[in-house]
Input
Amino acid sequence: MATIIWTTIGAILTLSVYSFLYKDNPFYKFAEHLVVGISAGYYLVIYYFNFIQPNVVAPVFLLRIGNEAIGLGSSMWWLALIPGILGLLLYTRFFPKFGWVGRWSLGIYVGGYAGLGLSPIMQARVLNQIGANALPLTSITNVFLIVGLLGTLTYFFFSMKHKGVLGVLARVGIVFLMVGFGASFGYTVMSRVSLLIGRVSFLLHDWLHLI
Amino acid sequence: MNIFERFMNIDRRWIFLAIGIAVVIPFFFPLGLPISVTEPVQNLYDALDAIPPNGQPLLLAIDYAPATLPELEPMSLALLRHAFRNDVNVAVLTLHPAGYGLAERALNKVAEEMGQVYGEDYCFLGFRPGISAVILGMGVNIVNVFPEDAYGTPLNDIPMMDGIRNYDDIPLLISLAGWGAAEAWVLYAHQPYGQRVGAGVTAVMATDFYPFLDTGQLIGLLGGMRGAAEYEELIDHPDEGVRGMDSQSSVHILIIALIVLGNIAYFGARRKRRQMEREAA
Output
């Protein structure tokens, strides 16, 4: 019984969202606000219990009142205060006078992630890709790939006018870019249609049991 | 207003209706169009197929949210069915806060369907925030990042995780994601630790991942509902992916027809307009 009720609620909300395709209406607005509200509440709880509670609250508060060691261990509990305080400092931006303090946290956050990512991103997105394109010109596919690569790179080379050989290469690059954009557009259509198929399948299969 | 101009100014709601009809009809009258298997999907299938049974587990990262469910859930069901059919142990985790319930749903559904035992054949590690830190941490020791599973059982007490320390003990990792998580696994698990990574992504993202296939950073790729349908064909278990592909194909035919008609209408209207301008002059 509970399944039927929840499925029906899901179906009504799905139809409410799709009613926007006809025109904006209160049913759509209700569904939209419901999604935003539930998502905010859900994320808050998930992040608190998976992030703040085990990493800050448990080590700092529980250990200090004599509970068994959790997380960092009894002697190092104060380490958890550092990210906790840095996190709180982010909220100083709500007070214009002290807003600048939050930049320390942001600086550490950005710097930390940049440091973590620099080497793997350079390796994965740049060096490995260059290596994969260093191909012998022994097959038509390889020649095609190299010409496409050089043409596309030339198109984004803005230090010289696109005239003569450079102009021809840039035009070849445009063709390859357009093919790339076309492929992306095709995949995008497929992706958006999949979402509709998923909802239609839910309505016809899970709710109405017609298929 | 001539026929071309009328077509150019058609109310877009008629197009929405046509697309809706094109999606619904194949559910009742399947077209049964053939689904050919592409190389990236075959490679992922082969990699999972090569994992020895009842040994080191497949690590499946169900990193998707409800917004991408129709494309990615059929993939997770197909991959789980393939793994369980081969008696390959599976450890599931999620890096997306909204993925917790969805991962649990897919895992429980297939485990129940195939009579798998929790802790011996599969386990659910749950959600951890902090993407790159989590992935890098697992390379040192999985227990440091997931000291216990999603239900509070210490990881060391789960039989199938006995002797599983880090990526050295994971023969294959597959991330199913509708956002940057699949790339994060490539960046932080494959790059520094050499972990074999496969991915299933939404169709929108698929073109971004092909460069990783060429370099060997990804061993296989499932792209959108089509990728899921191909995998279902490979494991000979047609489900949501295959069922949705007929609707996909009919909508694609409709969109191609609309693009062609739109272009005919555009050039026809332009020609008519110029003709009228010439006559007026």
